[in-house]
Backbone:
């Protein structure tokens, strides 16, 4: 085989040779959460509004228990991107709406890895009150659109803020194996995945996740990858980690230490860019790089900050990363509708007013927000530090691949990221430590 590959390159088929820096590593599936901390996504019943634009995409099910009262049904997307694509092909989603979803989700359909044939890639659920008035739930585990052959259960009530319990064991013990379909090697295959549904009293919501991740072996090391913090299995937003000795005995990695697509992994003293997961080919993709870390731009601790340019929302003054050379810079990616972001604004105001601006600055970069709402927020909270609105023209949040708010970066005078996601007292303590050196 090696001789054949050498002949191919020698014959000048350049396309195969230019891919030599790309490494595709086969993966295997594991149930559970592994070294990762899990998150939950909220689930809700189908809207009864006749004008709801998603109505044509709802699953049509039967077998909801007759004895239930206040019964409602809904569905959980295992891969919403596949679901949207196939509903678009079926005419349930208009071209205009399809284009708008791509824009709002910052998603470009990879049609080579999406099935044109309909897949069972979401699962139906229903809930209602039994004769005693107690909430019961049922899940269409075998995905046959009929609840009559599925078991009823009482959803586990779980305080998601309380970290004193072993949630991994608790949630896996209360999970349901559900059947779904996906594309693998261009063939439709049937898979099973543990689905965990809980009731979160602090949010007043049913919430769920899929306790499954993938592992890959590379150069004598184990890599673990989760999909969207276990909220779905689209693998559109993934986190990868090297499972080192500190994690092999039940350790958990902090979310800010997982590596996202187009960020870098150091493996056996070599640096690789993580390019994501191809679930059709069943591989994890890495890309070799020959540059040293201090010449690579990323949103990771220890790497150079990605350059950007924008305009101060109020003064219209041009702002770039170069404006902050020689200073520490705290960048706060936030949105006007984000409750944790808003709660932090008074703390940032107090901190900013106390800072020596010759040594450190704060910059807000606001995404997924309207200019009118940002204007009101600046006035309401007396925000005096610079704000850049990241919109369709100035796509800084897209460049930085911001997937949630708030996200924060602390950058040193040399432009290297030294901390992520600091807020409140932790941010204040870190800044005081730096300025006292």
Residues:
């Amino acid at each position: 085989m090696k001789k054949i590959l050498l002949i191919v390159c020698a014959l000048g088929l350049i396309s195969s040779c230019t891919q030599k820096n790309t490494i595709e590593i086969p993966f295997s599936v594991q149930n559970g959460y592994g070294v990762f901390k899990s998150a939950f996504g909220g689930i809700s019943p189908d809207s009864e509004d006749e004008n709801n634009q998603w109505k044509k995409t709802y699953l049509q099910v039967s077998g909801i228990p007759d004895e239930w009262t206040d019964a409602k049904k809904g569905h959980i997307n295992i891969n919403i991107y596949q679901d949207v694509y196939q509903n678009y092909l079926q005419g349930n989603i208009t071209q205009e709406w399809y284009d708008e979803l791509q824009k709002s989700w910052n998603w470009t359909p990879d049609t080579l890895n999406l099935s044109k044939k309909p897949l069972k890639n979401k699962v139906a659920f229903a809930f209602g009150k039994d004769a005693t008035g107690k909430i019961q739930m049922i899940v269409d585990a075998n995905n046959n659109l009929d609840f009559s052959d599925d078991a009823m259960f009482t959803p586990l009530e779980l305080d998601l803020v309380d970290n004193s319990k072993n949630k991994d064991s608790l949630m896996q013990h209360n999970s349901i194996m559900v059947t779904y379909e996906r594309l693998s090697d261009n063939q439709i295959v049937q898979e099973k995945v543990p689905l965990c549904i809980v009731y979160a009293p602090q949010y007043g919501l049913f919430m769920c996740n899929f306790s499954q991740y993938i592992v890959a072996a590379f150069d004598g090391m184990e890599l673990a990858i989760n999909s969207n913090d276990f909220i779905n299995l689209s693998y559109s937003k993934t986190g990868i980690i090297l499972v080192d000795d500190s994690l092999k005995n039940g350790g958990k990695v902090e979310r800010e230490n997982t590596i996202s697509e187009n960020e870098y992994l150091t493996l056996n003293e070599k640096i690789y860019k993580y390019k994501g997961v191809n679930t059709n080919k069943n591989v994890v993709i890495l890309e070799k790089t020959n540059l040293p870390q201090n010449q690579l731009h990323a949103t990771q601790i220890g790497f150079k900050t990605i350059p950007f340019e924008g305009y101060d929302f109020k003064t219209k003054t041009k702002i770039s990363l170069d404006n902050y050379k020689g200073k520490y810079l705290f960048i706060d990616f936030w949105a006007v509708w984000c409750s944790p972001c808003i709660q932090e604004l008074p703390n940032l105001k107090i901190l900013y007013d106390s800072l020596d601006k010759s040594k450190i600055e704060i910059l807000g970069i606001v995404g997924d927000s309207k200019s009118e709402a940002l204007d009101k927020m600046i006035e309401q909270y007396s925000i005096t530090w610079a704000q850049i609105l990241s919109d369709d023209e100035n796509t800084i949040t897209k460049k930085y691949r911001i997937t949630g708010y708030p996200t924060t970066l602390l950058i040193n005078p040399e432009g290297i990221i030294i901390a992520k996601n600091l807020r409140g007292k932790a941010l204040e303590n870190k800044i005081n430590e730096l300025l006292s050196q």
User: Anything to note?
Assistant: The first strand starts at residue 22 and ends at 26.
